[in-house]
Design brief:
The chain is an alpha+beta fold. It contains 6 helices and 5 strands; from the N terminus they run αααααβββββα.
Amino acid sequence: MNLPLTSELATAVRAALSPFVIDPTADTLCVLSRAMSGMTAYAYSENSAGRDREIADFWIDSSSACDHAHEHIQNMNRTFATGATPTALEVRTVKYAVLAATALFDEAVRSDTPSPADVNKPHNSGPEHDVSVFGIATAAVHLLGTGWRAEPGLHNTMGDIQRSDGESYLLAVGDVGDMAPELYVENGDTRHVLWGSDGEDLPDLARLVADAVRDLALD
């Protein structure tokens, strides 16, 4: 595997994502779509390299996440084709689907080329760099400490934070009634919205989520 090449593919997608999020137009979406296509083609080439489709594999997960991101990109293409303006929720949906795809692509690359420090941790996804919703959940679990773990939702676009006693806290992004999608933690019928968290970096988001989970756990 050519590591510089694979690194450049994911980097190109992230570089194309930022202009799209700032200014979601048909042109910025087209640039993002082209970058995603390059990464997707590589993920599928590795996916098809003699792998058993019945066995869970990082490249199979990566190509599936790429498909998921392309699906949302195509949905937005149709929105632009009608002359409509995409909603903030639609933009955030594309954003998190693309971030999840790049995170899983990076994980697949690492799975094929483990560093000496990660030999015994083949599923390490580098939570300090993973800004998908599941990546945020994973980072929050590190702050919550022993007895907590995180499970991914659909293609890392949700995170399920679980306590050892079975109590579960859903981390997701959605429309919470203020005309803009927000990150929130949900436990049963109780929802803790992390107002104005968009733009925060991963450590701050993890801290906010960990604090929200602690608050809900005390209720």
